[in-house]
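Researcher: Here's a chain I'd like modeled. Treat it as a single chain, no partners, no ligands.
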Amino acid sequence: MQNNNLKNLTGINISKLNSYIDFEKIKKRNIDIVYIKATEGHVYIDPCFEINALNANKSSLLVGFYHVFRPSTEELAFKQARHFVNTIKNYPCDCKVALNIENASNLTSSKITTLCNIFLNEIKNLSNLDGVIYTTTNFIERNLKKSLSMYPLWVIQETNRSFIDNGIWNSWIGYQYFDKKVIDGLTGHAYLSDFTSEILLS
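Model: Modeled as a single isolated chain. Structure tokens:
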């Protein structure tokens, strides 16, 4: 896994846990990208999604959206993809859409990998948006197969150790640090990520 000297963008990810957000203040803290939680599973929409999406775009920050995946059946993988696309389709998106997968639901690694592929393929078919896998090194090692390497990786660092090879990806386009930060303009704490320019859709 490459070192983080390739980063040229800094980002945060937000959700309802950050109930008050002043995007202008965030931008002044040298944040370039804000990833907004849109959906989880096949019915849930983050209650702060709409206001976050509107205000983030007004601030001229680069915006991305992520979906928290709940692996179950192939049918529900398709439903989750449609739910995600229907939620974000009316909002400008600058970054690859992120599939956040950290829950195995007691499924095999082959099954989880199949479901992730279904989700990301369906996202592409429905919206023509490219996707990125957003997960931890530990989850990759335990639950994912190499067929997902066709998608880029946004890796969540779980400790303060240096970068760790995971057996599938030997590079990343996003690297999230394990420790939360207090950021002016944001209620609660946030995780900071380093991104390369490959996180952008264009």
